[in-house]
Amino acid sequence: YAGGRVKTWKRRWFILTDNCLYYFEYTTDKEPRGIIPLENLSIREVEEPRKPNCFELYNPNHKGQVIKACKTEADGRVVEGNHVVYRISAPTPEEKDEWIKSIKYNFDCFACSQCVSCAAAL
Q1: Which InterPro entries does this chain map to (predicted)?
Q2: Are 45 and 100 in contact (CB under 8 A)?
Q3: Residue 52 pLDDT greater than 80, yes or no
Q4: 48 FRET partner, CA 20 to 30 A, in 2, 3, 69, 119?
């Protein structure tokens, strides 16, 4: 489940790849409903009274700034996201821990590949 600035929770399915978190409305969807580039973001566990097993993506360097992301509206238009944080609730504590671990690993790999590509350019 994912919840943003408006405190409604929507069921979503996520795929983590290429330093982006893609989310889908249905498991059968071919195209993502939204894309959250993970560059410059951090992740933390959070307590959420209405949902268990929560974590959120946020920008540690620009508190209060909208996260660069996009989503597809029901009419097919692609618009910029308007979330300061993306709060996600996993089905179980184990899945929450696995998501956090995987996203942190993704951060590390991306940072490492940036260094390698930067060093190669010098």
Answers
A1: PH-like_dom_sf, PH_domain, PI-Interact_SigTrans_Reg
A2: yes
A3: yes
A4: 69
DSSP state of 65: P
- CA 103 – CA 57 distance, rounded (Å): 10
Domain span at residue 65 reads 2-121
Q: If we measure between CA atoms, which residue out of 15, 99, 84 comes closest to residue 53?
A: 99
C-alpha separations of 5 from 23, 56, 66, 95, 112 in Å: 17, 12, 10, 23, 32
Residue for token pair 């982006």:
20
The tokens describing 43, both together, are 């992740």
- Per the structure, the count of domains in the chain is 1
pTM: 0.81
Tens of pLDDT, residue by residue over 14-26, are 999 989 999 999 9
- pLDDT(42) > 80: yes
- Residue-level pLDDT at 120: 42
Find the CATH number of the domain harbouring 24: 2.30.29.30
Return the structure tokens found at 100: 């956090």
